[in-house]
């Protein structure tokens, strides 16, 4: 698919040349229109757009697109705009803000799954329940990938009650097994947890609050509710529970399905200090997955919240005692402290020498947190995120004269000959035309909506290398490094990757 | 891009061995090679490496290779040859001419027409040798004095994004772009039946201390782990824990040969088998890997450390000056960290029971679960 992307883009480039200034001009106009649409949308939605808003924005954008698209088709250059739409969609997935916020790295998360009869709806395939089970497994895996020193527990809202699916622990395998057990029970005599009855938000919040009660104060306390039904059958006053959650510093995010509920909005609003953006509604399966996985990024620590009243001052930060055990390989099998199974290898606790099978883990005998230094390193990219790359105008592309992607060597579409089109574009949108120099450009559009680049090039603001869309996605979603910055010695690589002050030999 | 790759992803035969992409990161740090020059000169090493590359290309029709130099001042592709950027001034009247110039100097090297040489081998060979010569010519004395180390982080990042793109190009045409996007985000989720590109990275490393690139290299390791790309290490000189961890985490081979002059033998025996063949072979393993952490304050290797909850710095002692974190400067308290273990189930306080109280949590410190939570289980 992406292969065809690139061939398509090459064709479109040559088309531009043949059509001459007329074709170029109209595509520029189209590009401007798209930019306007996204700018409007960016204004409309806040830092984290709410789902219904975003959907609305998308649809209105499509309405904008359709005439533009047809208009372009008349001029025989549809490829350009299709490719731009494609790239724009890809780039939307990039994180909106890459400012290094203080984030709650040590998280305690309770994932609450809706197991009420509303989950038997078939608007997701095969049912909401099965879709949710599948995504929840994926979520657990991704969560521990991103947050190796965090803890999680899974609850289920089933038939008016809240059942505990898995205990608070840091072992992804346990959670996944438990979530799978909902669909197909491990023991045949276990009663099936097929969706049944009504959900109760109050019971869920109370049980989650109790689960998080003993967690140390330097970690976050989060509840993520996947809520499929449009009602909550509560035994008491849910507002009291909300107040209690606020007092216990529990932050609740709700991922709804099909429609927004007033009570969910209120829960989220109260527990997130007035910020309602944590309440999102998944209108389809894909969005549900996306929204769920979006919560694997550690939350930003709110500096403005009335921390003094809600939590004691020392809860802000703490020095945690941790053990960095060494791996042992034994001749004869011995029992491990975590499962009681006979194993020949493992890690011995640095304090009490109990043997555990895997890391990270809390030592079963002395409660010391045991992990590898690499687990800590895994969280660094949340603390020092890679800044988003800027779109490159034709003008800028001509200035730099790049022919292929810096990191994958895929050829870029050729720069059209300098002429009317280029000049128009630089006047058209100031953020792209780099007349104002590097500094102005650096400060601008950091928070802006990510959109497609007309020249299919994306530029790192620090090292000024150009990349293709696929490398842009890969570097921001998987690698978290800028290959350009790291490949040159004299660029200030610390700015993007924070090498300087965090150096550490593992 | 290159002839070998292009021929591959159009005519794929399903029952054949999966094509294999080998990305070689060659550490060309001049300081380290100068040390090695008595036993293994760089020219010999390069010749050995070319033989190895040819062997890799010969072992499968779809096999391809990418070579990246990790030099002291930059890291760049040796093969495939990147198209040089031809920057144009803003006001130029005759842009056509500039375009021609840009392409003109890239054609300065050409494949020698040796009828006795397999054409793909000759392509790779000339490409690598030309780019390598260019790299060495471009190295100034000031670059050498600036740093004694090498930019392995950048080279690894280049290799990983190159592999990611090659994997993406190798995917069968999917009906929707959505699936391809999923494939980018997490390869585990989308298991398909197609023969995927098996890629691996080989780092021929000669440099020692890489601590200043800890975070970029770590990020690369995690990316490789996520994409299931093994990183093989051939350590000719120097010693780094970092690269050892890289191969351990990604399931690659780590070798530190005692006699570097036998480079070709090591390459052929330990690093030629691709991931599919390795499953049925006994591969050399590193043995014990040092996982201990060094503290940020005294660089002591510690068993039990104290970690700042905000920036995850490791300290060897809990009494920091003013209880402030040395890295991020936030106030730290040890007391909060020593979390109390979960209390036992509290006894029901019957005298305090108030029906329809104003708040659902009991005042004081008792657990909220036991109070008037109604109807729970």
UniProtKB/TrEMBL annotation, chain A:
SMART domains: C1_4 (SM01047), VWA (SM00327). Residues 60-77 have a biased composition (Acidic residues). Keywords: DNA damage, DNA repair, Metal-binding, Nucleus, Transcription, Transcription regulation, Zinc, Zinc-finger. It is found in: Nucleus. Residues 108-296 form the VWFA domain. A zinc finger (C4-type) spans 349-366. InterPro entries: C1-like_sf (IPR046349), Ssl1-like (IPR007198), TFIIH_C1-like_dom (IPR004595), TFIIH_SSL1/p44 (IPR012170), VWF_A (IPR002035), vWFA_dom_sf (IPR036465), Znf_C2H2_type (IPR013087), Znf_RING/FYVE/PHD (IPR013083). Residues 43-59 have a biased composition (Basic and acidic residues). Residues 1-95, 419-451 are annotated as: Disordered. GO terms for biological process: DNA-templated transcription; nucleotide-excision repair; regulation of transcription by RNA polymerase II. GO terms for molecular function: zinc ion binding. Residues 1-12 have a biased composition (Polar residues). PROSITE patterns: VWFA, ZINC_FINGER_C2H2_1. GO terms for cellular component: transcription factor TFIIH core complex; transcription factor TFIIH holo complex. Gene3D superfamilies: von Willebrand factor, type A domain, Zinc/RING finger domain, C3HC4 (zinc finger). NCBIfam families: ssl1. PANTHER family: GENERAL TRANSCRIPTION FACTOR IIH SUBUNIT 2, GENERAL TRANSCRIPTION FACTOR IIH SUBUNIT 2-RELATED. Belongs to the GTF2H2 family. Component of the general transcription and DNA repair factor IIH (TFIIH) core complex, which is involved in general and transcription-coupled nucleotide excision repair (NER) of damaged DNA and, when complexed to TFIIK, in RNA transcription by RNA polymerase II. This is General transcription and DNA repair factor IIH.
TrEMBL record, chain B:
It is found in: Nucleus. Residues 103-115, 359-377 have a biased composition (Polar residues). It comes from the Eukaryota. One of its GO terms (biological process) is regulation of DNA-templated transcription. Residues 346-355 have a biased composition (Basic residues). It holds the Pfam family Tfb4. GO terms for cellular component: transcription factor TFIIH core complex; transcription factor TFIIH holo complex. Keywords: DNA damage, DNA repair, Metal-binding, Nucleus, Transcription, Transcription regulation, Zinc, Zinc-finger. Residues 81-116, 343-377 are annotated as: Disordered. InterPro entries: TFIIH_Tfb4/GTF2H3, vWFA_dom_sf. One of its GO terms (molecular function) is zinc ion binding. The keyword Transferase does not apply. The keyword Transport does not apply. Belongs to the TFB4 family. Component of the general transcription and DNA repair factor IIH (TFIIH) core complex, which is involved in general and transcription-coupled nucleotide excision repair (NER) of damaged DNA and, when complexed to TFIIK, in RNA transcription by RNA polymerase II. In NER, TFIIH acts by opening DNA around the lesion to allow the excision of the damaged oligonucleotide and its replacement by a new DNA fragment. In transcription, TFIIH has an essential role in transcription initiation. Component of the 7-subunit TFIIH core complex composed of XPB/SSL2, XPD/RAD3, SSL1, TFB1, TFB2, TFB4 and TFB5, which is active in NER. The core complex associates with the 3-subunit CTD-kinase module TFIIK composed of CCL1, KIN28 and TFB3 to form the 10-subunit holoenzyme (holo-TFIIH) active in transcription. This is General transcription and DNA repair factor IIH subunit TFB4.
């Amino acid at each position: 698919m992406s292969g065809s992307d690139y061939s398509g883009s090459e064709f479109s480039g040559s088309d531009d040349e043949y059509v001459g200034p007329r074709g170029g001009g109209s595509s520029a106009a189209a590009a401007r229109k798209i930019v306007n649409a996204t700018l409007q949308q960016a204004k409309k939605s806040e830092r984290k757009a709410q789902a219904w808003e975003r959907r609305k924005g998308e649809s209105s954008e499509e309405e904008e697109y359709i005439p533009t698209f047809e208009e372009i088709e008349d001029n025989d250059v549809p490829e350009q705009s299709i490719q731009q739409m494609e790239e724009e969609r890809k780039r939307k997935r990039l994180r909106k803000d890459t400012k290094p916020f203080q984030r709650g790295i040590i998280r305690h998360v309770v994932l609450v799954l809706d197991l009420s009869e509303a989950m038997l709806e078939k608007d997701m395939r095969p049912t909401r329940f099965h879709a949710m089970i599948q995504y929840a497994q994926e979520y657990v895996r991704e969560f521990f990938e991103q947050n190796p020193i965090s803890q999680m527990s899974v609850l289920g809202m089933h038939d008016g009650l809240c059942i505990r699916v898995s205990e608070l622990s840091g072992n992804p395998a346990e959670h996944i097994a438990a979530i799978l057990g909902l669909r197909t029970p491990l023991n045949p005599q276990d009663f099936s947890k097929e969706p049944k009855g009504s959900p109760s938000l109050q019971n869920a919040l109370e049980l989650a609050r109790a689960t998080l009660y003993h967690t140390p104060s330097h970690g976050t306390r989060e509840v993520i509710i996947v809520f499929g039904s449009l009602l909550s059958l509560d035994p008491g006053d849910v507002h009291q529970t909300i107040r209690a959650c606020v007092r216990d510093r529990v932050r609740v995010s709700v991922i709804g399905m099909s429609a927004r509920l007033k009570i969910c909005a209120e829960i989220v609003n109260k527990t997130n200090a007035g910020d309602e953006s944590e309440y999102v509604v998944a209108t389809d399966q894909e969005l549900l997955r996306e929204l769920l996985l979006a919560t694997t990024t550690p939350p930003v620590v709110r500096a403005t919240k009335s921390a003094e009243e809600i939590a004691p001052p020392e809860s802000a930060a703490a020095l945690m005692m941790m053990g960095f055990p060494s791996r042992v390989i034994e001749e004869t099998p011995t029992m491990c402290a975590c499962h009681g199974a006979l194993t020949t290898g493992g890690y011995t606790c640095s304090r009490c020498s109990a043997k555990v099978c895997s890391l990270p883990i809390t030592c079963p005998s002395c409660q010391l947190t045991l992990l590898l230094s690499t687990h800590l390193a895994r969280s660094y990219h949340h603390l020092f995120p890679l800044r988003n790359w800027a779109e490159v105008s034709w003008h800028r592309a001509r200035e730099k004269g790049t022919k292929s992607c810096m990191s994958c060597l895929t050829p870029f579409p050729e720069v059209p000959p300098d002429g009317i089109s280029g000049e128009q574009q630089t006047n058209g949108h100031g953020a792209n035309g780099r007349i104002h120099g590097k500094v102005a450009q650096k400060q601008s559009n950091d928070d802006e909506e990510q959109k497609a680049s007309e020249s299919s090039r994306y530029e790192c603001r620090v090292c000024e290398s150009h990349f293709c869309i696929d490398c842009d996605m890969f570097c921001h979603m998987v690698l978290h490094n800028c290959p350009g910055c790291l490949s040159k010695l004299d660029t200030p690589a610390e700015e993007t990757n924070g090498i300087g002050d965090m150096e550490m030999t593992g | 891009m290159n002839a070998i790759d292009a021929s591959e992803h159009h005519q794929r035969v399903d029952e054949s061995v999966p094509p294999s992409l080998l990305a070689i990161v060659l550490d060309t740090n001049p300081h380290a090679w100068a040390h090695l020059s008595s036993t293994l000169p760089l020219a010999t090493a390069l010749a050995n490496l070319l033989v190895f590359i040819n062997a890799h290309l010969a072992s499968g029709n779809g096999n391809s290779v990418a070579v990246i130099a990790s030099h002291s001042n930059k890291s760049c592709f040796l093969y495939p040859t990147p198209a040089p950027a031809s920057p144009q001034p803003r006001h130029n009247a005759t842009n056509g001419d500039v375009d021609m110039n840009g392409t003109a100097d890239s054609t300065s090297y050409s494949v020698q027409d040796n009828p006795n040489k397999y054409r793909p081998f000759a392509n790779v060979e000339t490409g690598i040798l030309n780019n390598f010569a260019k790299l060495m010519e471009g190295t100034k004395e000031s670059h050498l004095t600036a740093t004694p180390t090498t930019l392995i982080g950048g080279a690894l990042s280049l290799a990983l994004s190159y592999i990611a793109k090659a994997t993406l190009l190798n995917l069968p045409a999917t009906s929707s772009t959505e699936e391809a996007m999923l494939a980018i985000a997490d390869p585990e989720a989308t298991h398909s039946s197609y023969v995927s590109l098996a890629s691996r990275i080989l780092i021929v490393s000669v440099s020692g201390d890489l601590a200043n690139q800890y975070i970029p290299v770590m990020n690369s390791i995690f990316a490789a782990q996520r994409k299931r790309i093994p990183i093989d290490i051939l350590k000719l000189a120097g010693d780094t824990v970092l690269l050892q961890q890289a191969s351990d985490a990604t399931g690659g081979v780590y070798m530190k040969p005692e006699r570097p002059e036998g480079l070709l033998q090591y390459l052929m025996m330990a690093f030629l088998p691709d991931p599919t063949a390795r499953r049925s072979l006994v591969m050399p393993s590193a043995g014990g890997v040092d996982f201990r952490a060094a503290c940020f304050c005294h660089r002591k290797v510690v068993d039990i450390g104290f970690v700042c909850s905000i920036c995850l710095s490791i300290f060897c002692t809990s009494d920091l000056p003013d209880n402030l974190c040395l890295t991020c400067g936030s106030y730290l308290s040890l007391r909060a960290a020593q979390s109390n273990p979960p209390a036992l189930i509290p006894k029901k306080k019957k005298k305090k029971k108030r029906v329809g109280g104003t708040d659902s949590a009991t005042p004081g410190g008792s657990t909220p679960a036991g109070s008037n939570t109604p109807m729970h289980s």
